Amino acid sequence: MDNSPRRADAESPQSLDYETIEVETLVVGAGAAGARAAIEMVESGVDPEDVLVIGKRGHGDAHTTWARGGINGALGTRDPEDDWTIHAADTLKEGHFVNDPGKVEAVARAMPALLRELDDWGMAFSRTDDGDIDQRYFGAQSFRRTAFAGDHTGESLLDTLVARARELDIPYRENVFVSKLLTGDGRILGAAGYDTDTGEFVLFDADVVILAAGGYTSLYRRHSSRDDENTGDGPALAALAGATLQDMEFVQFHPTGMVGGRYGEEWDGRLVTEAVRGEGGRLFNADGERFMRRYAPDQMELAARDVVARAIASEVEAGRGTDDGGVYLDISHRERAFIEERLPRMDERFADLGVDMAEEPVVVAPTAHYGMGGVVVDDSGQTDVEGLYAIGETMAGVHGANRLGGNSLAETIAFGAITGNAVAARRGETRGHRGDEGLLHSRATQHFADLARLTDADGSHDPEDLLDDLRDLLWDAAGIRRDGAGIEAGLDALERVAGRASDLAVGDRTSDSFEFALDLGFALVVAESILRSARERTESRGAHYRTDYPDRDASWQQNIRVTHDSIGAMHLTTHAVGTPSPAVQRALDADYQLDYHQLE
After folding, report:
1. N or C: which end of the chain has fewer CB within 10 A?
2. Among 144, 222, 223, 254, the one annotated catalytic
3. Residue 426 bears catalytic tag
4. Is position 254 annotated as part of the catalytic site?
5. Residue 320: exposed, middle, or buried by beta-carbon count in 10 A (0-12, 13-18, 19+)?
6. Domain 254-367 top-level CATH class
């Protein structure tokens, strides 16, 4: 790895210093997907010095830690009849059959061995009395296949991966914001960005870039992410570099987010893990009715997430919600010791807020939680751009129209391993763009000049305010329920936000406002793709529910893809969905169903 200072060309608006880092493979994003990809490369024989993992925040501080409830894999600990084909079938059904079957099957097939590998690496899984990795129920799953570490699974997972990466001496750099991917002749050349602590520009000269930069759900008014993560960086960076997006209209609203009116704005939208319902938690409206009997009498609280979220929204709109605009989630019928053992983080969080889960219910309402859409990739995770890969929530294909709970962490681990292995195997093929160094530096200096002009800009609009306006318009136009008129209104409002975004008031490059300004640029790309895709899909399927087209339409069993032309204009096309393997088709035909009432 070579670090050397460079100065921008004299033709640039001003002379700019920047650091250049040469590395074979750059991993953008230090959550579970990025960490697992880097680990796989090194374990496949790549020298650690040829890999660099970078993150926007401190090491170990990634969105992965907020995934609490569990990670799926057909271990059969509790239900020996479960297997990977049934896991794949459940995923396809939950995705309303617009998933990529090959990617679904790759994840489901890989997960049992990958869970055991994590166990070997020391992950603190919860255990059965016999010492096996325990598994719990999660919504819309036929069997108990969600492995877990109490209700802090994502945190424990990332701790395990970070520890493993350190054992392997994998280099890491924190507090770096990647603002542009640099390409030439259809292949990746590197990435440009800046150090958020110092404001200094950084150029990464890389043969391969793996994007593991998360999703886009914090672009909604109520969301389960922190405001500075899941802002659409990954999909937008890839799209602007020439990659294709898919399924952007499918945004999952988790049924149980905290309600700010009761717990304070700091907690508004934060996740109340599905593990609470997986351990027997019950939903009640303000009239004391267990209302899921009206919407999903067989699966009740463990129905698909889109079903439960719409049910809660319907109860609130019908006047049967709480004063805070939510409903009650109650697990107080369980013993205190059970709650403390199985849901320790939730128990502690609510205790700090003055609520005893063993004695009283908590108030919840739907919150934007996961973007099923993302970047189109092949079976190895590579995008349309040679040398550019996308994994984790940045990629599309696994989840279709609605994500099965417990599959997000599974996807990060499975495709982290798949892509890391593929990149290691292709090292000889990906080397050799060094003749493009002149083009790389030319494009980098142009971008750094743009960033320099943005620095300390004395405009009229605060980028954070515009982000809030964008969040409001997406919530209203492309939320839990949508219609054509609302989507059109959202597109009009988005155009107005984009107009104001050309006149920003921004601080220096170490300021929050500078980062918000870049987030806003990504958000505009992603929001337009969500709205235009939602307008195009004239049916209701999974998380995409249109009140003017309330039924599922068989002719829409296809994916909507989004591309950008050379001048940045957005274009939509449709793409046929693949066919499951015979083994998974047999599992689909068997039509396994969760017997929720085992929990009663």
Report:
1. C
2. 254
3. no
4. yes
5. middle
6. alpha beta
